[in-house]
Every structure is written in structure tokens, then in C-alpha cells.
Amino acid sequence: MSMMIDGQLALSSSTRALRDLVVAEFASPHPEPLGGNNGLPAGAVGYLAQNTVVAVTPVTERRFDEALIRYADRTRRDVVLVRCGMHPETLDPVLVDVALRTSFGRPVLVPDLSLWRGVDRSLHLVPDGNDLFVEVAGHGLDALLVRPWNGWEERCDGLTRAAAEVVRAAARARAGEE
Description:
By secondary structure, this protein is of the alpha+beta class. The protein has helices at about 15-25, 65-75, 150-175; strands at about 5, 10, 30-35, 45, 50-55, 80-85, 95-100, 110-115, 125, 135, 140-145. The strands form two sheets. Strands 3-4-5-6-7-8-9-10-11 form a nine-stranded mixed β-sheet. It has a two-stranded antiparallel ribbon with strand order 1-2. α1 (about 15-25) crosses α3 (about 150-175).
């Protein structure tokens, strides 16, 4: 359940837990709540040191593509949108859309990425095929052309590790809400 606290929309604890799962990779994250009508889901938070905005929505369909591009273009910041559904990784797959800044003009949208957790605890956002891979690092986002795994078994292991982490985080958050 979401409610207003001091003029800011407070996210449900499970939604906040999923945002925090991504943000935990940032070195010394200092959140900056975004106010006003920016086109992003309510509760989007900026991280100045990483030049990145992170938002979470229970909407599973891709309804924010243009808003992500517009916001990234206007602010020259990377934008991460986690689409988690109402039952993250139990009934609804968690997918991530990223609008990445570019040096050649308009930001590029990389949609429908999955969370992938490496054995070294690194967090990547990965496509189904061989497209652009995104590493969530201490300084922000890094676009990679090389996949972070060596074989399909390692890919499956990383996807499973990340999915299990999402389920645990959401369950702990829901247990704390009651």
C-alpha cells in the first residue's frame, strides 16, 4: 500500500525492497526524491553521484517507454524502470527497462531486461538474446557488448540467483508490512 508522507509518495515495502536491490550496487547511494509530473512512476528516486534515476512499478506492460526516453533526454541521466507486477518472480516476471544516455544524441532504450546475479555478486541487466548488457556498478550503469557469463548454464544460474533474491526481498518486505 502506498501513502503520502511529507508530500512524497511512500512506496509499498515490497516495491521499495526491489528498488533497493538495484540501488544496493551503487557506492554510497544518496537518494533524491523526484517531485512534480515527470512522466515516471510515482516514487522514482534520483542518485546524483551515479547520474541515474531508479523507478519501480507494478505495471507489467511496457507503458513508460516514451517517458523514460523523454526524461533521460531532458536530464541527461540514465533511467532504470523495474516492472515487478503484484507478485514479483512468483507470478510476475521482473523485467527492467533502461534508457541510457549517449554521446551522439537521444538516449537509447534497452527494454525487457532480466536481473542476473553473478557468482561474484555483481548485478547485470541482461536481454534474452545477444543485445546490449547493462552492469549496475558503484558509479552507475555501464553498457556492455560482452555477456557477463561464459555458458548457458552460468546464464541460467545467474538468472535463478537473481530471481531467488527478488522473491526473498519481497517476502521479507511483505512480512514486515503485516
